[in-house]
């Protein structure tokens, strides 16, 4: 029985330490994680070691969570004791409900009344997420914590391994080796014929099927498709959507920045956006910040670009977006977003709800709910959720609302604009019974073969 070079290194190391964690073996042998785990697997198959696998769940604070630990935005409401709700900044109003429910504040005759300044339950939960209880769902929703399953590998040498004389077989030949090939110990090669299954025919990926279906639905509803680039200017990705230049989502924790600068936009629109930011956000707008390039964080950037050229109509897009997020069973750093806008003189909030219900009904969903939310570029705003049975929790599918006038007026658009940005992978998980969003990108051929073509 011959061993590969990695197997020889690992077995020799285990002869000295007898038992070791895979990270310890990485240090001893100088091999990377993949090399160590592959070598240990083959050694265990040959009975030279036993390989123990222990699965653990790790819970960690994200960058946003660490920031909230020192300065949780909810607690800024304590500075508005005695102030009317209308005096509270718009971005803080979303925290009035949680603060009131926890007994930190009350609202009396439209004024904020501070009841306690210490002991906010959500902050205590963030300090010790393992004991957060029901508040863990809120911490996850805010992306303050990330939870991931990890496997720990420990190897222990067997008696057979201790007795085995390690000798690495030759697997690659040089010209010098060929001259003295009779003296070499060659690693065995498996040349036995095996039964081979017939090749499977080509098949569309579930994501491709879903994208085609969604496009068909929107076309049937009278929408026109929008297209654009992955690399966008901060001006269109953020500024044109009335998102201040110091907004947390612009930080590296949420955004992938690209080298270079560019700003292709009408000078009048740039001037209008600058004036709106300085008037309502009360800061000095920076032209250089607007020129920074990013991987687009949403497809809403296509909507504002479209509105800048076409002032009315119904438009949609299905495209990839990029977020520097912690990856878990329902979050990815690269995923798809379903985008849509309706610019019409009689557009209203009720029509937005009916449109979303009709869209999800055509996809096969009946039980959905809407709840109030906050987005810098829509008012009123809402989130769309579906109850996800495998995890026994409501899953957010996207956000929607009516574009603020601070968004549409700088673009010289005259009519109200209904807007929505929806997830593609998450509803697809429900339709296919998938428990982990990463399954769509693992290239598991058995799973792809088993997926029905007509699931939607």
Give a concise summary.
This protein is an alpha+beta fold. Helices cover 33% and strands 24% of the residues.
How does this model look, in words?
With 456 residues, the protein is α+β, with helices and mostly antiparallel strands. The protein folds into three domains: 5-60 and 148-183, Arc Repressor Mutant, subunit A (Orthogonal Bundle); 69-143, no CATH class; 206-450, BirA Bifunctional Protein, domain 2, CATH 3.30.930.10. Helix content is 33%, strand content 24%. The chain contains 18 helices and 15 strands. The strands form four sheets. A seven-stranded mixed beta sheet has the order 6-10-11-15-14-13-12, with helices on both faces. A three-stranded antiparallel beta sheet has the order 1-5-2. The protein has a three-stranded antiparallel beta sheet with strand order 7-9-8. Strand 12 (368-375) and strand 13 form a beta hairpin. Helix 1 packs across helix 3 (33-45) and helix 6 (121-127) packs across helix 7 (135-141). The radius of gyration is 28 Å and the shape is globular. The mean pLDDT is 87.
């Amino acid at each position: 029985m011959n061993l590969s070079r990695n197997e020889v290194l690992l077995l020799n190391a285990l002869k000295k330490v007898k038992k070791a964690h895979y990270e310890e073996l990485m240090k001893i042998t100088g091999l990377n994680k993949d090399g160590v785990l592959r070598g240990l697997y083959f050694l265990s198959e040959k009975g030279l070691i036993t390989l123990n696998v222990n699965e653990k769940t790790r819970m960690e604070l994200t960058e946003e969570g660490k920031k909230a630990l020192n300065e949780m935005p909810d607690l800024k409401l304590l500075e508005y004791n005695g102030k009317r709700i209308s005096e509270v900044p718009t971005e803080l109003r979303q925290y009035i409900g949680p603060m009131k429910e926890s007994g930190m504040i009350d609202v009396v005759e439209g004024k904020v009344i501070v009841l306690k300044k210490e002991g906010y339950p959500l902050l205590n939960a963030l300090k010790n997420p393992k004991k957060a209880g029901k508040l863990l769902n809120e911490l996850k929703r805010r992306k303050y914590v990330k939870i991931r399953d990890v496997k720990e590998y420990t190897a222990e040498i067997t008696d057979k391994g201790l007795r085995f004389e390690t000798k690495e077989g030759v697997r690659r030949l040089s010209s010098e080796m060929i001259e003295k090939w009779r003296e070499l110990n060659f690693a065995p090669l498996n040349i036995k014929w095996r039964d081979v299954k017939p090749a499977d025919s080509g098949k569309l990926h579930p994501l491709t099927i879903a994208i085609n279906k969604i496009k068909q639905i929107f076309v049937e509803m009278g929408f026109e498709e929008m297209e654009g680039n992955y690399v966008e200017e901060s001006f269109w990705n953020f500024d044109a959507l009335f998102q201040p230049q110091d907004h947390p989502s612009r930080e590296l924790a949420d955004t992938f920045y690209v080298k270079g600068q560019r700003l292709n936009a009408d000078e009048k629109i740039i001037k209008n956006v600058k004036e709106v930011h300085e008037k309502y956000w009360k800061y000095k707008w920076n032209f250089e910040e607007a020129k920074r390039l990013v991987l687009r964080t949403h497809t809403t950037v296509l909507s504002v670009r479209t509105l800048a050229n076409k002032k009315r109509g119904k438009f949609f897009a299905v495209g990839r977006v990029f977020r520097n997020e912690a990856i878990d069973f329902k979050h990815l750093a690269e995923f798809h977003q379903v985008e849509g806008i309706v610019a019409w003189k009689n557009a209203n909030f009720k029509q937005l709800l009916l449109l979303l219900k009709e869209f999800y009904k055509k996809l096969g969903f009946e039980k959905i709910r809407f709840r109030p939310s906050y987005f810098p570029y829509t008012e009123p705003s809402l989130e769309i959720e579906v109850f996800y049975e495998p995890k026994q929790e409501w899953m957010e599918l996207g956000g929607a609302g009516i574009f603020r006038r601070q968004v549409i007026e700088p673009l010289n658009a005259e009519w109200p604009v209904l807007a929505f940005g929806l997830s593609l992978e998450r509803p697809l998980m429900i339709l296919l019974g998938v428990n982990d969003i990463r399954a769509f990108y693992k290239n598991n051929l058995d799973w792809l073969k088993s997926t029905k073509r007509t699931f939607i």
